[in-house]
Amino acid sequence: MIYLDYFSTTPCDKVVLEKMIPWFSEDYGNPHSVHAFGQKASDAVEHARQQIATLIGAESREVIFTSGATEANNLAIKGAARYFKKIGDERRRIVTVATEHKCVLESVRSLEEEGFEPVILGVDQFGRLDPETLKEALQAPTLLVSIMGANNETGVLQNLPVLSKIVKEAGALLHVDMAQLAGKLPVTLERVDLASLSSHKMYGPKGIGALYVRRRPRVRLLPLFSGGGQERGLRSGTLPTPLVVGFGEAAEQAAKRLHTDIEYISGLRDDLWGKLKVLFPGIELNGAEAERLPGALNVCLPEGIRALEVMAKAPELAVSTGSACTAADVTPSYVLTAMGFSDEKASRCLRLSVGRFTSKSDIDRAVTLLEEAVRAL
Ligand SMILES: *Cc1c(COP(=O)(O)O)cnc(C)c1O
Question: Can you give the residue ranges of the Aminotransferase class V domain (predicted)?
């Protein structure tokens, strides 16, 4: 099998797994207990918190552990909206973008039932939010703006340095879904109030993520769950020490290898793109004019070649059409639809994503498999 689906998830790095093992059955204390078992686990959790904070340039107290980026996004958006409503703030507008992950879009949409006003902005043909579109939406008093750093289908980056200024000038809070961005490119928290991270997108274990919550000036949220008040009252529940330790190590590895990974991964990606262009005259690169993640290759195959049929003829190749959440769906990717693609064009699009453990021979084999698949069609 050739795995070219690193944007849906990454394998847990062996180095990360090694660090996790003892925390399952040797050092099993509850990190919230006061005795020595608990203290040891708590120290490991705090070390991991610092490793994650370092990756994104935060203080460790600003990192709140969650079960993943889905929960972090829900907590950021619903938590902020509900807090401001509770203290009597009159702003109700919540702004986001049509190409966001479902968990952001659905969190924003769901707030309508609670009296908020969701506003979902369109993108251009390359998947970028136009700063003028954002400015216009912020003419009305706005509570929160949620913009992803990098898209999980196309790898397209939003222009955060410019967009974040507009959000701050309008006096709104800015939340950034960094699930795909963190650990893959350098990140900044300048003008960012809340940011979501996911461990399994950066070679850590699944089931753990974090929300960055700015302390200066302090961003306040209402928690989603009632309970023991762990994580500074924002996320009750016993922390899963092995997962937290793994996430911390994954963050440290990502920081250490950042520039090596960027160079290696974008080199392989460019190699693959070069070969695909030869194999499929007329193939198009989606998001071509936008800045993109190093491993991103979302392509539109020439007319008459449907992506799902190619995938069916190349079962040894793990790639996808849309995101993993909606892959089983036959409806076209809403991300590509938002970029103005017709259903027919979207049905020809394939998402290939390259990562740290992809080899040169994986790329060659993938090209051969695609060639055979198209010949069989
Ligand atoms: C994967 C992903 C999520 C969801 O993260 P989980 O940790 O799997 O819940 C959210 N946003 C983006 C952009 C993602 O790629």
Answer: 2-365
Distance 318 CA to ligand 1 centre (A): 19
Measured from the CB, is residue 103 less than 6 Å from ligand 1? Answer: yes
- Tens of pLDDT, residue by residue over 313-339, are 999 999 998 765 555 556 899 999 999
Average pLDDT over residues 7-34: 97
Q: Kindly list the domain boundaries of the chain, sorted by start residue.
A: 2-7+257-376, 60-240
**Predicted model pTM:** 0.97
Contact 146, 104 (CB under 8 A): yes
Q: What is the CATH number of domain 60-240?
A: 3.40.640.10
* Residue located nearest, by CA, to atom 2 of ligand 1: 179
**Could you confirm whether 325 is annotated as catalytic?**
yes
pLDDT digits (tens, 9 = 90+) for 159-197: 999 999 999 999 999 999 999 999 999 999 999 999 999
Q: In sequence order, which residues have a C-beta less than 8 Å from that of residue 363 and are 6 or more positions away?
A: 268, 271, 272, 275, 354
CATH class belonging to 2-7+257-376: alpha beta
